Each structure stands twice: as C-alpha cells, then as structure tokens.
Amino acid sequence: MTVTQSLFYFLAFVAIFSSLLVVLAKNPIHSVLYLILTFFTLTGEYILLNAQFVGIVNIIVYAGAIMVLFLFVIMLLNLNVQTEPQKTNLIKFIGIITGGIGLVVLTGSLKASDPSNLVVIQNVDMGLVKNLGKVLFKDFLLPFEIVSILFLSAMVGAVLLARKETK
After folding, report:
1. How far apart (Å, rounded) are the C-alpha atoms in residues 156 and 110?
2. What CATH number does the domain located at 3-127 have?
C-alpha cells in the first residue's frame, strides 16, 4: 500500500467518523465543529485527486462562510433541549425508512463499482489552479470582467441603500 492510499483511507475514515458525529452529537455547536472537520477531510481528498481548486473553494466557501453562518444561526436561536419540540413517532419512522433507503443505495453503489476500472490521469497538470487561471483569463476574459463590474455595482448599490437608511 502506497502512502497516497494510506492517506486516502485515513482521510476517508476520519470523514465518515466525523460525519457520524455530526448526526449523533447532542450539542449543535459540537455538530457544526464536526462538520467543519468533515469538510477539511474532504478537502484533503480533493487534493489527493489533484483538484486543488475544488479543495480551496471547499475550505473558503463551506468551512469558512457557511459554517460561520451556521454557528451564528445556532447561537442566535439559543437551541437547547427544553425548547425543542418532541418528535412524533411518525417523524421518527420516516427518518428510519429514509436512512434505510440511503443505506441500500450506498450498498448497491459500492457493490456495483469495479475497482479494476480505475481512471488513471494522463495529464498530471489537470486540475491545477494555474491552468484554470490561464483558461479564465484567456478564453473567458470578457465574461469575467462583466461579472466583476456587476459585483462592483451591486456592492456600490448595497452601500448606497444602507447609507440612505441611516440618515
């Protein structure tokens, strides 16, 4: 077993374990922290797959922005056991059925996968951020600049709207 395979299996184990802890954690803050750990392990998997851009975007967007939003919402709602409504038996039964169907689909997809059909990347530079930048600034320069002007005008509009409300 190579180092890359060992790292893959370690990251996969940590991702599965931390995702289980997301669901099983009693405290919602701990659940969010386990979800951040899951995102970091998935970023490691992306980097092993030579998809550095997707890994960095995963960290910036999901582990950064979305998790901060989740933490703020959880803290603002002040969730605790006393205020949480009790779940009916029907809701629990539907959850068990849905989880069982998901387990059957996952098991079927694992049985249908054939490890002999692994894809070997011929171009080792595929998925690198520098290649994405070359394509973005060469072939798609005009749409990129139009989107940047749109974002700039949206920021200016938001500042003007906020400024009018404060007067």
Report:
1. 50
2. 1.20.120.1200
Contact yes or no for 21/13 (Cβ under 8 A): no
pLDDT for 31: 86
Six-digit token string for 120:
């070997």
Neighbours of 53 (CB within 10 A): 15
Does the pLDDT of residue 83 top 70, yes or no? no
Tokens found for residue 61: 């967007």
Q: Which amino acid makes up residue 114? A: D
Expressed in angstroms, the distance from the first to the final Cα of the chain is 67
The domains of the chain are located at: 3-127, 128-167
Q: Which of 102, 38, 104 lies closest to 70, judged by CA?
A: 38
Kind and range of the H or E run holding 55: helix 52-57
Q: Is this structure's pTM higher than 0.85?
A: no
Q: Which carries the bigger pLDDT value, residue 21 or residue 159?
A: 21
**Higher-pLDDT residue of 47, 159:** 47
Q: What is the CA radius of gyration of the chain?
A: 22
CA 127 to chain centre: 18
